[in-house]
Every structure is written in C-alpha cells, then in structure tokens.
Design brief:
Helix content: 40-55%
Largest sheet: 4 strands, antiparallel
CATH class of the largest domain: Alpha Beta
Shape: globular
Structural class: alpha+beta
Strand order of the largest sheet: 4-5-3-6
Distance between the termini: 67 Å
Oligomer: single chain
CATH architecture of the largest domain: 2-Layer Sandwich
Order of helices and strands: HHEEHHEHHHHEEHEEEEHHH
Strand content: 5-15%
CATH superfamily of the largest domain: Reverse transcriptase/Diguanylate cyclase domain
Radius of gyration: 22 Å
C-alpha cells in the first residue's frame, strides 16, 4: 500500500517553503465577492480568492487534481470534453429528464473535500491544510480554480451509482458540472423520474425542483447545456443565438467591449457549428469593420 504523502512532499511538489504555505493559508480569509448577472435574471455571488492564493490554487489543480481519471459520463471541467460532447451523448434521444443541483458548491462539506485529499494519499495535517486552501466559509468558492475539479471528485460515487442506474433502465446518463441529464430513445415514466430523484437524494445531494424538467422531441428540440438536440443535430438554442446577435450589434457600437470578450462569447458557437452561421457572421463582420476603422 502506498505511503501517505506528508508536508515535505507538498513543499517539494508545489515549490513552496513551509512558512510560505502557512502565509497562503492565512490568505483564505481575504476572499472578496462579486455579483454576476444570471442568464435568467437575478445575480449570483462569486467569492474570488486573492491573486497569490489563486496562483497557488492553480498549482494545486495542475499537480494534485488533474491526473485523476474522471467518469466518462462527466463533461464539465474535464480536458477534451465540453458542452458539445455533453449534448452529443443524447443526440438521438426522444426524451430527456434534466435536473440541476441546488447551490451545488455551497452544499459541499468539509468531510467531502477531506475525502478527496485522502484519495490523493494525503493524511492528517496535510488533509486539513489542503482543505483550508480550497474552501471558503465552509463551502467551495465558485471563483477558485480548484472548485470544479474538487466538485467532480466529490461526485465520483454519485456518478458511478447513476451510471449503473441508467444502464439498468436503458438510459444515457451525463453530467455537466451541476446539470444531470438522463435520456431515452422513447420516454421516461413518472415512476422512473421519481426513482432518479430518490437515488440522487439518497446519495446526499440536494436537487433544485424549480429547474428539473422533462422534455420530449414532440414538443421541440431537447435543451441540453444551451444546445438544442434533435434528430442527431446539435444547434445553439434560438434564444441564445438571438442574444449573441444583439451582443455583436452592441459591441460594434461600444468600444469598451473588447475583441477578446467577443471572441470568448463566440467560442461555443464555433464549437457547435465549426464556423459562424450567417445570422451571426454578418454582425461579427460589422464589429470587425468598426474596430479596424477606429484603429486608423
């Protein structure tokens, strides 16, 4: 059985002295919060770590968390997987049951995170230290680089249980961060949907009942992480395309909107379509023309 990793291992791997490690732990009291608008109205509070702590968290992510094998059903915050690969798993489904966790990161407890570090072969004080480094006020902060990876590892047992449940009922199961999707070639009965909810709750997770929805293609394409899925085709939802079009028109008039921000918003469009569809291409070209003219 491998020996537990101690503080010396941590210092060498992350290139930090013991005093510096303790100084970084003190920085966990210096998070600041920002209010970010939600797509459907309201605001989300995000806790942002100070720069030195965030840089250290990136090292923790790179050297301690990235090498874990993540379940094939998981598509969020996994290298080589994304919203498109997530939606593509359901491209020929006729029905989908889509659920969201309630305040996913906020319900992660200290014992859950400590279990992750023990999987990394740490023990005792090292487990306590690393847990302090990645948590804020007793939960996972959305603004920390480590949080998505920690969340995926916290959900490992749940993903295994739900994957087996799906296989037993001829379902396809995937998860993208806090969104769970179960699809079927025909339909999912109310009894089956109830069993899914009970399985998630029995594993200790809390669902948001307002965001749970059952969709069938007879009522339109299946909406999976912002992508419309129907008859083997993937498209961005119409409302999302129209919002992007309006954003491009606004960016052409507003010089404070950077090209980097525009390209970032269009990244998923190119991911899904390969290139910009005509309805977005023209306003994007107008944006580029206005920026070229202003540079003269």
């Amino acid at each position: 059985m491998p020996e537990p990793r101690d503080l010396s291992y941590l210092r060498i791997l992350l290139g930090r002295e013991e005093e510096e490690l303790e100084e970084l732990r003190q920085l966990t009291a210096q998070y600041h919060t920002v209010e970010v608008p939600k797509r459907r109205g309201g605001f989300r509070t995000i806790a942002i770590p100070p720069d030195d702590l965030k840089a250290f968290q990136r090292d923790v992510l790179k050297f301690l968390l990235r090498d874990f094998r993540i379940d094939g059903a998981v598509h969020g915050a996994v290298r080589g997987r994304n919203t498109k690969t997530h939606a593509a798993e359901h491209e020929y489904a006729q029905a989908a049951y889509i659920l969201d966790f309630a305040n996913a990161f906020g319900h992660v407890t200290r014992p859950m995170v400590e279990k992750v570090w023990r999987r990394c072969l740490f023990d005792g004080d090292e487990v306590s230290y690393l847990t302090d480094i990645v948590m804020c006020n007793g939960s996972l902060p959305q603004g920390a680089p480590t949080s998505n990876a920690i969340w995926n590892l916290v959900c490992e047992d749940l993903d295994t249980v739900l994957g087996r449940f799906a296989a037993d009922h001829w379902l396809v199961y995937t998860r993208y961060v806090d969104e769970l999707v179960f699809s079927h070639p025909r339909h999912l009965s109310q009894e089956l949907r109830r069993a899914i909810r009970c399985t998630v709750r029995d594993a200790g997770f809390v669902l948001n009942p307002r965001k749970s929805r059952y969709c069938h293609v007879r009522n339109g394409a299946l909406p999976i992480t912002g992508i419309s899925v129907s008859d083997g085709r993937l498209r961005l939802a119409k409302r999302r395309r129209e919002r992007l079009r309006a954003f491009l028109h606004r960016a052409a008039r507003d010089s404070t909107i950077s090209r980097e921000r525009v390209e970032g918003r269009l990244g998923e469009v190119r991911l899904v379509y390969g290139e910009l569809p005509p309805r977005l291409r023209r306003p994007y070209e107008q944006f580029l023309e206005t920026r070229s003219a202003s540079a003269l």
